[in-house]
Specification:
This is Core histone H2A/H2B/H3/H4. By secondary structure, this protein is mainly alpha-helical. Helices cover 63% and strands 7% of the residues. The protein has one domain: Histone, subunit A (Orthogonal Bundle), CATH 1.10.20.
């Protein structure tokens, strides 16, 4: 069925292609507040928020990518989408952390 995502104020179907971020949410919680727990319902809500933001960024990046010739969304489109969607300081930090994550990923290849 459709799930209501309050932060997005719209309904959408959560399908099997959507990632489950629960393990990552729990890791971040333990880094920030060691020893704290989170209820199953709160974890589900956090997961839905992350999925919603992910889909919003992907949709905006795809819209920006439509003007380019290839079918691939590049790092440039994702960074631009983030800069358009978030306040300046949050966007700057998000892009910076994204660059670090990509560099870390590429160093393991």
């Amino acid at each position: 069925g459709a799930k209501k995502i309050g932060i997005l104020n719209r309904s959408r179907h959560i399908n099997s292609f959507d990632k489950d971020f629960n393990a990552y949410i729990f890791r971040v919680l333990n880094r920030v507040h060691p020893g704290f727990g989170v209820s199953r319902k709160a974890m589900s809500i956090m997961n839905l928020i992350i999925l919603g933001v992910f889909h919003m960024i992907a949709k905006e990046a795809a819209r920006l990518g439509n003007s380019n010739e290839g079918p691939t969304i590049t790092v440039c489109e994702i960074q631009t989408a983030i800069r358009l969607m978030f306040p300046a300081n949050l966007a700057t930090n998000a892009v910076s952390e994204g660059r670090k994550a990509v560099a870390s990923y590429e160093s393991f290849e």
